[in-house]
Amino acid sequence: MSRLFTSLTLRELTVPNRVWLSPMCQCSAGADGVPGDWHLVHLGARAAGGFGMLITESTAVSPEARISARDTGLWSDAQVAGWRRITGFAHAQGMPIAVQLGHAGRKASAFAPGEGRGTVPAGEGGWTPLAPSPSPAAASRPRRKRRNPTWPGSWRTSPRRPGGRWTRGSTRSRSTPATGTCCTSSCRRGRTGAPTATAAGSATGCGCCWR
Hints:
Elements: E1 8-10, E2 13-15, E3 20-21, H1 37-47, E4 53-60, H2 77-92, E5 97-102, H3 151-160, E6 167-168, E7 173-176, E8 187-189, E9 195-197, E10 208-209
Parallel strand pairs: 3-4, 4-5, 5-7
Antiparallel strand pairs: 1-2, 6-10, 8-9
Helix pairs in contact: 1-2
């Protein structure tokens, strides 16, 4: 408890305390996955509240990676613009902000809270989830049997989008596997300097700036 309000340095990033805002799914984005006013107010209020760092809700790396159609994403320029508004405000308050990148896997194409239960039918805006195997999360959910060649690329492309390149600074990214739970995972630079997503369990951060 004595260290709770002490600073912590992760490579080039130093946070003022160890009280961090955990990811909280808001399920408030439009069908385009763009974060809006709700997200600005939700995260902006906390940015001015004294946390050591903010971590966004699970943000999909591709359309089929969403849990529901109301999830935020980071695969298009429109989404980048929406996130820039939020990260810009957070940075103006001196607040580091991180993104939790996620892929829902076999749990994708679900109804958002309050809109129903189970899988959304294709005729109602649902999609076929992409998972590591054809084994469904529920008997009624079909699965692609073959690996989609665009899947690995999505993990590399999404965190690069906000700035077009990786720079050292005040914001980090976290990657979450399709288990339905959060993990302490982050991006790591390879030998060539290119960022790649690591497996769950890595407690070391890259300190790369998400702007």
